[in-house]
Design goal:
The relative contact order is 0.13. By secondary structure, the protein is an all-alpha fold. The chain contains six helices and no strands. The radius of gyration is 17 Å and the shape is elongated.
């Protein structure tokens, strides 16, 4: 199965769930680059299996510096548990005041 076929197959499964859609895109985008060519992206954006949101977000995901791309790259980063715990403690203290 080619990469574009996989995205087309997953599009209907994630059409109502942006978080899931970004998780599928995350498989193809990392800090070093991605597996799609510009022609692949154009053919995907013209495919009717994708919703308008999926087309726009797909195109933005492969643009250097876009917020969508930065968000998807951040999904690949591990969460620093100490930051999460400190934020939870801060929220807990603020809510008790």
């Amino acid at each position: 199965m080619e990469w574009t076929d996989y995205i087309i197959k997953m599009a209907p499964l994630s059409k109502d769930n942006a978080k899931l859609w970004f998780r599928y895109l995350r498989k193809y985008i990392d800090k070093c680059g991605y597996l799609f060519t510009p022609q692949d992206i154009d053919s995907l954006c013209n495919n009717h299996a994708l919703t308008p949101f999926q087309r726009v977000s797909l195109k933005a995901a492969f643009e250097e510096g876009s917020q969508t791309r930065q968000h998807i790259i951040s999904l690949n980063n591990k969460v620093d548990v100490s930051n999460t715990i400190s934020m939870w403690e801060k929220f807990k203290n603020e809510s008790n005041e």
